[in-house]
Structures are given as C-alpha cells and as structure tokens.
Amino acid sequence: MRYVVRTFVAMTLFAFCWVAVGYGLFQMLQVGTCASGGPYVSARECPDGIEAVFFSLIGGVLGLFVAAGIYLTRGAPPGGRPPENAGVVVWFWTGLFWSIAAGAFLGVWGPEANPGPGGETGGLIVGFMGLIFGAGGLLALNLGKRRRSPSTRGPVVAPAIARIATAATPFATAPDSLSRLERLDRLRRQGSLTEAEFQTLKAKIVEDG
Amino acid sequence: MAREGSGFNPTAVLVHLVAIALGLYLGWIAMDRISPDLPDASVEPGVSATGEVAGDDPQSLFRPANLEPALTQLAGQMTAGEGLVRLHIEPGTLESELNSGDGLFQPTDVPADAPVVLTQTIDSERGGEPIDLDEIAYMDLVATRDGPRWYVQLDTSRDVGPPPWTYGAPIAGGPIEAGPGPPKPVPE
Q: Which residues of B fall within a CB distance of 8 Å from A11?
C-alpha cells in the first residue's frame, strides 16, 4: 500500500510540475519584456496574473525535487523486491531539463508561439541547453550501468574477469574445505567415524573443492 | 522503474502510468486557468499619459520632471541588447523604435531637460513670436551616423510665425540648426 500511495503521489506531482515548468517558461518567452507601475501607461504593460507564471516556473522546479524525495521512499512494490534507487535522481534531473527544453522550444516554434522581444534567441539557447543537460544525465546513468555490469564489457575484458574468478576460487573455498577436513579428522580420532567413512567423506570434500 | 527489482511488475507499471496521466491532466487544467492575457509582442515600448496633455501643461512630457520617469518606464520595457533608433516625444506620449546594433542610444542617454533647453534656444534664435513648450508639436531624437540628433517640429496650427518650422541639434542641445529635413537613422 505504501508503495502504491507514494509512487502515485510522486509521479502525479512529477507530471504536474513538469507541465508547470514548461508552461512557465513558454509564457515568459511570449511576454518578453514588460513594465508595471509608474505614472504613465506602458505600451507593453505586464498582464495581470504574470506573477502566477513566475511562481509556476519556480514552484515547478521545487516540486520536482519534492516528487523525487517522495519517490525515493516508496519501498518495495506488492510481491516484489525493494527497487533500485540509483537512477531515480537522474531520471528526475532529466525530466526537469527536458521540461525546460520543451517549454522553450514550444515558445519559439510551437503552434501558438509568438515570442516577445529577445524571446526567440533566449528560447533557443535555453531549449538546447535543457536538451543537452537532460541527455547528459541519461548518458551518465547508462555509462554507470555499463561499468557495473561485467557482461556488457568487451571480448578482452570478459575472459580476463572469468580467469581471475577461476584463479580466486581455491583461495576462496580453501578455508572452508580445510575446516571441514579438520572436523572430519577430529571425529575419526574420537572414534565417531570409521576409517572407511573418513576416507569417503574426505574424498567428497576434496572433490567439492 | 516498471521492473522494480524483480522483473516486470504490472502494478508498478499501472501506478506509474495512471499517476503521470493524472499529473499531466491536472497540470494542463491548472496552467490554463492561470494563463494571463499576454501583450502584443509587435508593440514597440512606449508610455502615454491618461487624457489630453498640452505642451506647457504640468503633466507635459516636455518637462524634465515628467520625462525622467517616463524614460525609466520605457527602459523597463526594453530587452538587453536593444537600443533606440528613434524616440518620439509629444506632450502626452513617448514612442520608440528599437533595433540592435551599433550607433543606437539608450533611454538613460537622453537628457531629460533637453526639450526645455531646446525650446529656449529656438525661442532666442527666432526672435519675433515667442516660442514656448505649447508651440512644439513633437521632438524626435534619432540615432544618426554622427550620434543621436534632435529634430524639433513646431506646431504650425498655432501662431508660430514664418518658417523655418523645424530645427535640429545634437543630443546635448547645441549648436542648433534651422530648417533641416528629418535625420537619417542608423542602421540604414
């Protein structure tokens, strides 16, 4: 239940904030520059409710972090093992920057785009930066996974790992076999085992390695 | 995320998909509600007084005390990197023409007392009929190759005497030139 509730809340908040960040940036590009107040009427007067656009952008970014925090505490799914959280932060990072990129590109090229003064250049710079930053997170995550998994390494590295594992096996099992043999010998000397039983069990331990 | 540690987990997939769909929907609805009516991006920055204003009214933009805050308000509507090609001053309105590039000027470059100083200079230059702020139709400050230049047009609907009815001057005010044509702005 905990998993379902926290995952649901986190992902709903994530998607909500994703829209809020993209929307905030989109609207800011449309407004460009504007002025409020002063003794005269400005030709480019800031529209009523412009504060909401600003708060949606800032609040959306903060909300994405909150969503990531809730998601990290979701626990194990019903009938499953506890999930790996290593990549979660990266996914949220990518989500944030791609939301920024989406808002910027929609603000410049979108069907309702009408960028204000300086909005087009600014939007393109922010859009491509968001795209690159988001992709950078996923790339780092992918590289990290490759490093952790020996199976994904090249043909030269994989056999080397196999050889090291084989060479290390006797050392790894030796203390266990030795103690078993010592215990066996002790039982024989106490008379709990016959010589024949001792030889049979000894051969089995040696065979097991 | 949908695999959640031990292979494919339908509950995890369902929870993620439903939550994301709901979040996107709620986000869309909420943002649509708070969407403001945006100003027209094609409108050039400018300011205007409410109601009719004559040249020598206390609220006239020819007066330094009024031009100063109007220029500040104009600067607030401009984007970094933009400059003024032309600043058009009438008693009740301030209009601008913007561009980006070299040779342009900023609202902060405009001396707020220039309209008064120019009017006094024109008055002493002409002799004859007295020229006051009321006799000025408009003043333009134009970015030219030689720097920003004033172009002053007298209000010919009033009794201003014989031509010349136009005057030019550098941004600082003097020396004044009688009867010039409108200055050519840069970039051409």
A: 15-16, 19-20, 23
pLDDT surpassing 50 at residue B2: no
Cβ within 8 Å of residue A72, ≥6 positions away = A85, A88, A89
Distance of CA B181 to the CA centre of its chain: 23
* B43 or B168, which is more confident: B168
Q: Within a 10 A sphere around the Cβ of A125, how many other Cβ atoms?
A: 11
**Taking CB atoms and an 8 Å cutoff, what residues of chain B touch A92?**
none
How far B12 CA lies from chain A's nearest CA (Å)?
7
Bridge partners for B98 per DSSP = B84
Distance (Å) from the C-alpha of residue B180 to the closest C-alpha of chain A?
Answer: 30
Tell me which amino acid residue B3 is.
Answer: R
Say if CB A35 and CB B77 are below 8 A apart: yes
Which residues share a beta bridge with A12?
none
β-strand partners of B77: none
What is the Cα Rg of chain B in Å?
27
* Contact status, residue B75 vs residue B108, Cβ threshold 8 Å: yes
Query: Which residue is it, tokens 């925090």?
Result: A69
Nearest C-alpha of chain A: how many angstroms from B57? Answer: 15
Per residue in B161-170, pLDDT (tens digit) is: 888 999 999 9
CB environment B108-136: b (16+ within 10 A), e (fewer): ebbbbebbbbbbebbeeebeeeebebbbb
Q: Do the Cβ atoms of A47 and B38 come within 8 Å?
A: yes
The more confidently predicted of residues B183 and A107 is B183
CA gap B79, A147 in Å, rounded: 47
Strands B147-154, B83-89: pairing is unpaired
CB atoms within 10 A of CB A89: 16
